[in-house]
Amino acid sequence: MLARRLRFSPSIVVAFVALLVSLGGVSYAAVKIPARSVGSKELKRSAVAKANIRSNAVDGSKVINESLTGRDVREGSLAGVASALSAASSDHAGAAAGLDRVTYRTVVASVPVADPTSMHATATASAVCDFGQAAVGGGVRVDDTDNTAVVDSYPDGGGRAWTGRVDNSDTGAAHGFTVFAACVPAGAVG
Q1: 112-148 burial: b if 16+ Cβ within 10 Å, else e
Q2: Which pLDDT score is estimated for 87?
Q3: pLDDT, averaged across the chain
Q4: Which of 14, 82, 93, 107 has its CA at 20 to 30 Å from residue 163's CA atom?
Q5: Residues 60-89: what's their mean pLDDT?
Q6: Measured between alpha carbons, how far is 126 from 160 in angstroms, rounded to an integer?
């Protein structure tokens, strides 16, 4: 009777084979991972090395701003930058040549005693560059910082001078100030 019970019908055999095939397929699927199915969450820290990254797969859009240093850049790759700088420099060669011939012009002036009713008096003076030169900068220095102040300082005279205006709040005395201009040959101003 026991032998009779162990006989399997063809439908049971087919069902058993189907079960084995289906279980085998699940284990196969667990071993073979579909493409693009692994993300940041599945990777361990430092799991991706340089050897794992395809050549030219990383470009500037994938790099965090301000994260690269000079050690990360191959100097030979900057040849185009150097030539661009050199072209820009040659365009301004005349300007650079003029910078070694900077001269300074000064003028000393005074601002009168302040009017007792308004408590102010102003004076203006200009330091003028020589003919053929241009003022590329300048400034004003006051002799008494407690009672006088620079109102403004600016290029003037068609670019040949630097002008300064000073205010005096001292009702007891006039005070001096100096205006200076930094001058270069006019052809050096680009």
Answers
A1: eebeeeeeebebebbbbbeeebbbbebebebebeebb
A2: 54
A3: 80
A4: 93
A5: 66
A6: 10
> What percent of the chain lies above the pLDDT cut of 90?
38
Domain ranges of the chain: 2-30, 98-188
Report the distance separating Cα 50 and Cα 56, nearest Å.
Answer: 12
* E-assigned strand segments in the chain: 103-111, 121-128, 133-142, 148-156, 161-168, 175-185
DSSP letter string over 153-170? EEEEGGGTEEEEEEEE--
Residue 38, token pair as written in the block: 């692994």
d(CA 68, CA 98): 37
Range 98-188 classified under CATH 2.60.40: yes
pLDDT for residue 120 is more than 80: yes
User: Residue 141: helix, strand or coil by DSSP?
Assistant: strand
Helix (H, G, I), strand (E, B) or coil at 70: helix
Query: Span 139-151, mean pLDDT?
Result: 94
Residue with the bigger pLDDT between 26 and 54: it is 54
CB 124 within 8 A of CB 164: yes
